Amino acid sequence: MSLTFLKLINVLLRIGGIGSKFLILTLMSKYFDVNVFGNYGLITSLITILIFALGLDFYNFSLRDILKTKEEQDIVNKVISSLLLYIIIYILFSFIAYSIFSNVSYLKPFVFLVIGLGITEHISQEIYRLLIGFKKVLFANILLFVRTMGWSIIIVFYYFNNVIITIDSILSLWLISNILTIIIVFIYVLFKNYDKILKGEVIVSWLKKGLRVSSVFLTATISLKMMEYANRFIVDFFMGEQMAGIFLFYSNVSMLITVYVNTIVISFELPELIASTNSPAVFNLLKKFRKSLITHVIISSVFIILIMKPLLIWQNKIEFETYAPLIFFMLIGVGLMNYSLIYHFKLYIFHKDKSLLKAMVISALLSLILTTIFTYFFGVYGTASAFLISCIILFFMRYNEAKKMSYD
Description:
The chain has 408 residues and is mainly alpha-helical. It has helices spanning 3-31, 34-55, 59-66, 72-101, 111-133, 137-160, 167-198, 204-254, 256-275, 281-315, 318-322, 326-339, 341-349, 353-403. The radius of gyration is 21 Å and the shape is globular.
């Protein structure tokens, strides 16, 4: 099997898997009332945020370290140590989340599903990252495809056969699909590494070092996710579920750029960048990475613009079509955010963690302030404007921090 053909298969699997979530989003934007769609969007946004919060961004330390580890037993020990850390986090999270979520009106009916999805989505993402890091790209993308497309096909079947669809049924099928693919991976890992797992041990000193280092990345990641998702909850607070649903729709559509760039560029090129950090080849790889980012940001943006009008016609809801200009604010913002990853990952691979953190935290704090003020005074277009301005700030913050590096 040629390398080009293999890459094509991986891309199709990844796009198919992630595309299925977009398909469900568009179907539900038509099927649900706008306020119900708003609640559904807020729940899925919360689950996305939980994925990052639960991991404490430990993978930013662990993956970078594991990929540089030569001894197989040491690799297994580090993976076991990571898993133990996550189990402890999951247990603590479950108790805290139950006490909080059961007091939130739109979460209360789905407390256990949201907790289960937060945990299983996180562990699934960690598995995916490790498989990609170990160059098991095809296996990783097959699992992703099965995990996301599996339950999505059932929902599509329900939709076209007039079976009643509820938020509960979507979340339940999603959780079952996650659990099944996690079981498959654990069976595969046990079969391949049985002897090494029996000899495995927890490296407490490695965990302590990792938590110390990853605290920087966690702050940076929470800052980024605050920029991407806090505006949805702010819209809900000031303008209610219906406007939240409308803003969520355009926000999620624009995030296809991020999904596409992660699929086509980052999942293939970042592991090589990390592995080549101490090699002169890293600078050519960075140039290639920059070119790939700008090319695919443009391709995905044009694609979204082309599909928006047909999508709105099919949707046939005046509430969404009235606010169609929102997409341009969101596309420019998300496009800038993704292109600025060239500077983000340059800081990351050269361990300029404090500079990375500075750019993210300042941008996020300004974003939160701008979004609150602009939404209060100017409504949903104020929210979109604040997002665009925040992304411009993030771009220049990352650019300036990367420019200070002595490696240029």
